[in-house]
Design a protein that fits this description.
The complex is a heterodimer of chains A (about 110) and B (about 120). Chain A contains no helices and 9 strands. Chain A is mostly beta strands. In chain B, strands 2, 4, 5, 6, 9, 10 and 11 form a 7-stranded mixed β-sheet that branches. Chain B has a 4-stranded antiparallel β-sheet with strand order 1-3-8-7, with no helix packed on it. The chains are: A mainly beta (about 110), B mainly beta (about 120).
Chain lengths: ~110, ~120
């Protein structure tokens, strides 16, 4: 079955750029969506369709995709960006199901 | 303003039934599919399944049809039921607004989450 792979953790200093990856076989053929989740809260959609930002999401958040890897980039990182980040796709193969990556804990140093 | 408000029992004993309900406010209930997603403590998100206003459901095949999702369009509510819970079902359960057919895409509004703990 289709799987998405994320690094369990990442760290970045304030003001620097964080890059969080999401890998999956043939991910280039699927639309990737990204969520930010702070402790005790529901996830918030920050990037949809690989690189589109929903209304209200700062332009410091951007998404891209190349080969079998999608990347969420957070520029000019702030302390408030410390959170878990999850990628998500629809697997429209034989199973027709939603698949999430395991999540990446971003620590702001 | 779209809001999803969910409720249900938070502490269950093994073999009991999990029952959660999610009410939708400020959105057209018939335009989207509505999903349940869970998150075990310290782990990632797992999609359980979805339903539309007509009662059409799709479930995560990995969960082996243990769950039942139903809808009450008169109240703009949808529900989740799981019989015979075990400790492995301990998780935060979220309801969420999902795709607008024919798209298969993202979840843009979420409920606040309900922690369901299964313990004897």
């Amino acid at each position: 079955s289709f799987e998405l792979t994320q690094p369990p953790s990442a760290s970045v200093a304030p003001g620097k750029t964080a890059r969080i990856t999401c890998g999956g076989n043939n991910i280039g053929t699927k639309s990737v969506h990204w969520y930010q989740q702070k402790p005790g809260q529901a996830p918030v959609l920050v990037v949809r369709y690989d690189s589109d930002r929903p209304s209200g999401i700062p332009d410091r958040f951007s998404g891209s995709k190349s080969g079998n890897t999608a990347t969420l980039t957070i520029s000019r990182v702030e302390a408030g960006d410390e959170a878990d980040y999850h990628c998500q796709v629809w697997d429209s193969g034989s199973d027709h199901r939603v698949v999430f990556g395991g999540g990446t804990k971003l620590t702001v140093l | 303003q779209v809001q999803l408000q969910q409720w249900g029992a938070g502490l269950l004993r093994p073999s009991e039934t999990l029952s959660l309900t999610c009410a939708v406010y400020g959105a057209s209930f018939s335009d989207n599919y509505w999903s349940w997603i869970r998150q075990p403590p310290g782990k990632g998100l797992e999609w359980i399944g979805e339903i539309n206003h007509s009662g059409t459901t799709n479930y995560n095949p990995s969960l082996k049809s243990r769950f039942t999702i139903s809808v009450d369009t008169s109240k703009n509510q949808f529900s989740l039921k799981l019989n015979s819970v075990t400790a492995a079902d301990t998780a935060v359960y979220f309801c969420a607004r999902g795709r607008r057919p024919p798209q298969r895409d993202y979840f843009d509004y979420w409920g606040q989450g309900t922690l369901v703990t299964v313990s004897s």
